[in-house]
């Protein structure tokens, strides 16, 4: 059967901007909303404090970590994300926990016909890690992408050493599809990454990832 990409709404791509959630997990109530200009100070404070925890998993970029994550860098990043969101290339969500900014989940590289595909990436403040925040955030974003956004496939690439991220994807039922050799320059070297993926068909029986988390007792809708 042919799939049609939903028609753009008022010049924007479907499903954006959006606010998703909340889902109660052991850490508190997780919700998603578009990143905001005023997230800069919190974003910078977390990212600079968490350099050792984040840098091993993120693409290498020119410039020092502290310089790239200064609060003064956020407005330009935010403008870029907002523009790309409006064009339909990305869905740049902030993750909030009990209303506080604690990380980001980003749907990127959105390709429309014929693929209807994108990748999902994420990070969260180390001080709230291990309590279900990212699992809930990714569940919300996957359901949204396969619902209002109208995508067919979502991929996540992860270094084999990143056991926490692999666990997030496994809990959500992402399928390990292969190993991309020297895929991404991370932490100053070209690193192998596993490719995990889901397609709409994978969720037809379960009724979505949010429902799956609720049924498993990992989250509660609020
Ligand atoms: C990966 C990351 C986003 C996970 O966020 P999180 O909010 O802690 O995720 P959750 O709490 O929903 O799930 C993490 C799971 O991994 C498990 N885990 C954590 N560290 C682990 C480790 N070293 N080995 C095995 N499992 C681990 C947790 O126990 C939890 O599983 P459980 O629910 O069965 O107990 C977070 O660790 C992070 O931001 N890391 C740095 C950036 C990053 O790696 N981004 C992803 C790049 S692919």
Automatic annotation (TrEMBL):
Alphabetical keyword list: Acyltransferase, Transferase
Domain of life (superkingdom): Bacteria
Coiled-coil regions, chain positions: none
Domain named N-acetyltransferase is located at 44-201
- Identify the InterPro entries for this entry: Acyl_CoA_acyltransferase, GNAT_dom, N-acetyltransferase
Q: Which family does it belong to?
A: Belongs to the acetyltransferase family. RimJ subfamily.
What protein name does the entry list? GNAT family N-acetyltransferase
């Amino acid at each position: 059967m042919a799939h049609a990409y939903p028609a753009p709404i008022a010049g924007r791509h479907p499903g954006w901007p959006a606010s998703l959630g909340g889902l109660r997990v052991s850490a508190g109530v997780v919700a998603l909303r578009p990143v905001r200009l005023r997230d800069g100070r919190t974003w910078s404070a977390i990212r600079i404090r968490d350099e050792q925890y984040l840098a091993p998993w993120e693409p290498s970029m020119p410039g020092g970590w502290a310089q790239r994550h200064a609060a003064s860098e956020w407005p330009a990043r935010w403008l870029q994300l907002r523009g790309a969101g409006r064009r339909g290339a990305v869905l740049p969500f902030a993750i909030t926990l009990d209303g506080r900014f604690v990380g980001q989940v980003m749907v990127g590289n959105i390709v429309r016909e014929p693929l209807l595909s994108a990748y999902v990436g994420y990070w969260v403040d180390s001080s709230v890690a291990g309590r279900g925040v990212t699992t809930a955030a990714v569940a919300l974003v996957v359901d949204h992408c396969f619902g209002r956004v109208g995508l067919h496939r979502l991929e996540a690439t992860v270094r084999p050493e990143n056991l926490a991220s692999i666990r997030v994807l496994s809990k959500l039922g992402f399928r390990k599809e292969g190993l991309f050799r020297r895929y991404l320059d991370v932490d100053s070297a070209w690193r192998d990454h596993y490719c995990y993926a889901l397609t709409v068909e994978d969720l037809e029986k379960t009724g979505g990832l949010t429902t799956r988390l609720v049924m498993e007792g990992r989250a509660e809708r609020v």
